[in-house]
């Protein structure tokens, strides 16, 4: 139902001249299985991948989505991985390893997604607690004029950013039925979730290079940046333009007159999150994000970042474009079957052992367990998009 609503909401955002032929689904399934087989070969005896609950959650989702996940071997591996994850559930509802650093919201969101996908009855109390934790982590006790308002960060007191926020919003979105459609549904929690989305839209708007709806001084007036997103208000991983008009690699605004550069992974994250927040098709923010992505359409790199975060980008792109409900995307006057393009790009990068790995190690993507999970989940989204 949600995909149907989002599909209707975005009709007309891109010119569709013909029904997309679609990707080679047999090749997609085979690639997923090779990736899942690699992941099973790297699973530890504890059921974990990298002894990390979030990476284990990503791997569990990948294996379960692959055809291999329907076999006894796949089911046993996923069950062991999920059992590892639930041991990290904390009294406050978060699910994370304190030994791995200060990433409670990242880890909780990804673990909640895995538990929701697996739908084990025994995990429902943990899922409810994790959902409540994420909603409770949103910045709401700061003035509405504060650019942190509505965002979610590394912890309840850590500054918010779009990457943490988009993972948390996805987990909150896919578990909405827990507050609405079950015998234990709580009207107060449903109201809290609605307020969460209202606040989130304000935060998302302040991460977008769109002067009409962003009141921050760093917003770029460059037509090429218009509509794209940055990491957080006042910071872009793609760098900035100094007040002298020259590009600067350090993307943190420190002086008035500096502007931030948009980049691909955060723009797909921002668009996806706005769709989950149910912004209308003709909302200028959604249209502007779509326009930026059309101008920078590629799966060969993370636009604005090159190889850095490439698999995160591909994974987020797949989810955002599937949420848009469109089989094609128009860029440079040409209609692109994005599912076929993205599948081809991923399968061409798969290594002989079934894994994916980024030679650029930023954001841990040199770990094949992480990049492989991103890649398999992107392929699963292509397969399951229904377009």
Question: How would you portray this structure in words?
Answer:
The chain has 387 residues and is mainly alpha-helical. 48% of the residues lie in helices and 3% in strands. Strand 1 (240-241) and strand 2 form a beta hairpin. Helix 12 packs parallel to helix 14. It is built from 14 helices and five strands. The strands form two sheets. The protein has a three-stranded antiparallel beta sheet with strand order 2-1-3, with no helix packed on it. The protein has a two-stranded antiparallel ribbon with strand order 4-5. The protein has one domain (2-384): Glycosyltransferase, CATH 1.50.10.
Major sheet, described briefly? Answer: 3 strands, antiparallel
Q: What is the overall silhouette?
A: globular
Helix and strand content put the structural class at: mainly alpha
Oligomer: single chain
Mean pLDDT: 92
Tally of alpha and pi helices: 14
Helical content band:
40-55%
* Strand percent estimate: under 5%
Q: What is the gyration radius calculated from CA atoms?
A: 20 Å
Compute the number of structural domains: 1
CATH overall fold name: Glycosyltransferase
Please report the total strand number as a whole number: 5
Report the uncertain regions: 1-20
């Amino acid at each position: 139902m949600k995909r149907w609503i989002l599909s209707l909401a975005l009709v007309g955002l891109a010119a569709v001249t013909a029904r997309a032929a679609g990707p080679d689904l047999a090749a997609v399934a085979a690639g997923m299985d090779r990736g899942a087989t690699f992941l099973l070969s790297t699973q530890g005896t504890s059921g974990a991948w990298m002894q990390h609950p979030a990476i284990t959650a990503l791997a569990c989702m990948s294996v379960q989505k692959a055809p291999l996940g329907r076999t006894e071997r796949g089911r046993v591996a996923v069950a062991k991985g999920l059992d590892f994850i639930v041991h990290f559930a904390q009294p406050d509802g978060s699910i994370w390893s304190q030994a791995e650093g200060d990433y409670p919201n990242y880890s909780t969101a990804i673990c909640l997604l895995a538990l929701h996908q697996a739908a084990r009855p025994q995990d429902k109390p943990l899922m409810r607690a994790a959902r409540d934790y994420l909603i409770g982590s949103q910045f709401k006790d700061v003035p509405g004029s504060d650019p942190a308002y509505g965002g979610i960060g590394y912890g309840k007191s850590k500054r918010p950013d779009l990457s943490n926020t988009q993972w948390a919003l996805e987990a909150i979105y896919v578990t909405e039925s827990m507050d609405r459609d079950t015998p234990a549904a709580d009207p107060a929690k449903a109201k809290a979730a609605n307020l969460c989305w209202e606040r989130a839209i304000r935060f998302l708007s302040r991460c977008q290079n769109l002067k009409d709806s962003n009141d921050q001084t760093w917003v770029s007036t460059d037509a090429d940046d218009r509509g794209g997103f940055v990491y957080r208000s006042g910071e872009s991983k793609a760098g900035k333009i100094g007040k002298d008009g020259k590009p600067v690699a350090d993307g943190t605004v420190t002086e008035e007159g500096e502007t931030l550069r948009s980049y691909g992974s955060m723009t797909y994250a921002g668009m996806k999150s706005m769709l989950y927040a149910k912004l209308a098709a003709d909302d200028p923010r959604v249209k502007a994000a779509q326009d930026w992505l059309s101008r920078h359409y590629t799966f060969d790199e993370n636009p604005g970042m090159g190889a850095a975060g490439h698999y995160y980008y591909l994974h987020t792109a797949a989810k955002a474009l599937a949420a848009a409900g469109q089989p094609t995307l128009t860029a440079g006057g040409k209609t692109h079957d994005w599912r076929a393009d993205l599948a081809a790009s991923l399968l061409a990068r798969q290594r002989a052992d079934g894994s994916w790995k980024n030679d650029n190690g930023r954001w841990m993507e040199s770990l094949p367990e992480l990049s492989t999970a991103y890649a398999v989940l992107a392929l699963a989204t292509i397969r399951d998009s229904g377009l």
